[in-house]
Specification:
This protein is of the alpha/beta class. It folds into 2 domains: about 10-180 and about 240-395, Alkaline Phosphatase, subunit A (3-Layer(aba) Sandwich), CATH 3.40.720; about 180-230, no CATH class. The chain has helices spanning about 35-45, 75-85, 105-110, 115-125, 135-145, 195-205, 215-240, 250-265, 265-270, 290-310, 385-395; strands at about 10-15, 25, 55-60, 70, 85-95, 150-155, 175, 270-280, 320-325, 345-350, 360, 385. Helix 2 (about 75-85) crosses helix 10 and helix 8 runs parallel beside helix 10 (about 290-310). The protein starts with 7 loop residues before the first strand and ends with a helix. It holds the Pfam family DUF1501. It comes from Ditylum brightwellii. This is DUF1501 domain-containing protein.
Length: about 400
């Protein structure tokens, strides 16, 4: 199927709970990262990934301290995407109000650091100066493209997310799609009696045109209901359409829905689209290694299947996919063999025609306390802000 040249989409896979991302991307011993790996293992202890459990990637030309890195053994699909040149890692990214140092970070950072709720909001809003209250970064990107007369669409799988909220005056609502396929309004009861005609007539009368005594809230509710009804009917065939690519795991159906929508973009007349998929379970205050062994295979299967699905429909270059979490976790383990709430973390991006097979950002040059990024309790000071990521993505998306 030929790609829609006027179509671009951003897909965010949000890993809730704060993934231990210094177990996702780590230095690997045996090459020029051996010294950094030794630092890493000494600092991480039981929370560190052993060299034999790391899949090697080459970060040559990435302006890092060394080039021999590894990724967690459960993320073989990430390794494939990276080695194909279609993906890249984002090293030590996080929420920043301004560039800060070990001396001033506590006084110069405007947020509730290490809080799940607040830092998840910060990662979704990307509005450090709070200039666009109530909006999310994807919502604002869609606002900008809508002003350029593009048809836009925000879609979340299964749940509401502030990331997709644009300015209220646009009147644009986020579509929430179920992962198990769309359900149309079905008025047939269990006994086979069909009240569709009578019920549809009643609903249409209840939500008819404005009258003198109509209230503004009633009108708004009725219009929202009618819009949802019509859109559900329009999408029922799309959401039931066949996807040839196999995507396994608990998030497989989520990404199949995203693929269905991307595949139908031309049919729906959409130019710019944004999707959010989420997965929780990463708050590993105890047994961090077991937590990753349990959760990362699901992430790996979803990402790998989605990557192949985009290639199958010739849309890989039209879609940028970003895997993020609200924060990284502490380098130092706690007494329960877990890791605690941190700050900077390592993330992944693929598609969208990016220059892959690189590690962008600045991975710590050392895990010793003397390093410029190492704070108390093994928290890592980010060297890149969320803004720097979204600036690059917004340029690709078409924002001036």
């Amino acid at each position: 199927q030929p790609a829609n040249v006027d179509y671009k989409a951003i897909v965010v896979f949000n890993l809730f709970g704060g993934v231990d991302s210094f177990s996702v991307l780590a230095p690997k011993s045996g090459g020029d990262c051996t010294e950094l790996y030794n630092d890493y293992i000494e600092a991480r202890g039981v929370a560190g990934v052993l060299n034999t459990n790391l899949l090697q990637i080459d970060a040559s030309g990435s302006n890092q301290t060394c080039s021999d890195f590894g990724i967690h053994k459960a993320l073989g699909e990430f390794q494939t995407i990276y080695n194909e040149g279609d993906g890249a890692f984002l090293a030590n990214f996080g929420h920043l109000f301004k560039p800060v140092t070990k001396k001033d970070w506590l006084f110069e950072t405007r947020t509730d650091l290490f809080s799940h709720y607040k830092m998840n909001q910060d990662a979704q809003r990307v509005d450090a100066f709070q200039e666009q209250s109530g909006t999310g970064v994807l919502g604002r990107l869609l606002d900008a493209m809508e002003k350029k007369n593009m048809t836009v669409s925000p879609i979340s799988i299964n749940t509401l997310t502030v990331m997709l909220d644009g300015k209220p005056e646009t009147g644009r609502l986020v579509d929430i799609l179920p992962s198990n396929g769309g359900k149309e309004f079905d008025f047939e009861n269990k006994n086979g009696l069909n009240f569709a005609d009578e019920l549809v007539t009643a609903i249409e009368e209840l939500n008819a045109g404005t009258k003198v005594n109509s209230g503004i809230f009633a009108n708004h509710f009725s219009q929202s209901f009618i819009d949802t009804w019509n859109k559900t009917d329009d999408l029922k065939d799309v959401l039931r359409s066949n996807i040839d690519t196999a995507i396994s795991g608990n998030r497989g159906n989520d990404f199949k829905q995203v693929l269905r929508m991307i595949k139908s973009a031309s049919e729906r007349g959409v130019n710019r689209e944004a999707f959010v998929v989420g997965k929780g379970g990463f708050d590993a205050h105890a047994g961090v290694m077991a937590n990753l062994d349990d959760n990362l295979p699901d992430v790996n299967n979803a990402v790998g299947g989605f990557y192949r699905g985009l290639k199958d429909i010739n849309m890989l270059d039209n879609v940028t996919t970003i895997i993020i979490s609200e924060f990284g976790r502490t380098i130092s383990p706690n007494t329960n063999d877990g890791s605690d709430h941190g700050w900077g973390g390592n993330y992944f991006i693929f598609g969208g025609g990016i220059r892959g097979k690189k590690i962008y950002g600045e991975y710590p040059a050392s895990f010793r306390e003397t390093d410029k990024t190492m704070l108390d309790r093994g928290r890592v000071l980010p060297t890149r802000s969320w803004d720097s990521l979204w600036y690059a993505v917004s340029q690709w998306f078409g924002v001036d």
